[in-house]
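Pipeline run #58 for the internal structure catalog. This entry was flagged by the ingest filter as a single-chain record with no existing model, so it goes straight to prediction. Upstream metadata was stripped on purpose; only the residue string is passed forward. Reviewer on rotation: M.T. Logging verbosity set to normal.
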Amino acid sequence: MKNLILTIDLLPKGAWGNNLSKILPKKDWDILRQKCYEKAINRCVICGFDSSYFLVFNYKTGKFEVHSYEQRGSSLCLILPYSSLDERTLLHVKKTQSENRRQFLDEMERENEKLEKARIEKISKNAEKETEKAFRQITN
């Protein structure tokens, strides 16, 4: 029993609804925030996103873009296919993160296979119609 450590992590009643970034001086908040980032290995402990990500709205394309401070060369990570930001945005970013790349690539491959199958079926139906049309012309 001497290896047992009891840790209690309760939030005092007075802390509910308060924002530490607004209460603490900026210097103290930055120190606390950096220590939290280090402990979480620069990932949001709620959603798992890399803290180097930032969002940009590109007025030329009219699209939202996710960038990363840590990415070399261009900071662009991905362009969001949505015109507004909502839960789909978070799911899309999470799905395309590097540790999920195998699942993302597999899903993309399945989608490409569906599209290719639909394309071939369309070509086949068009060829069938053209063959029937040519056959009718020959027999008449």
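catalog note: The first strand starts at residue 53 and ends at 58.
catalog note: The mean pLDDT is 75.
status: ready for reviewer M.T.
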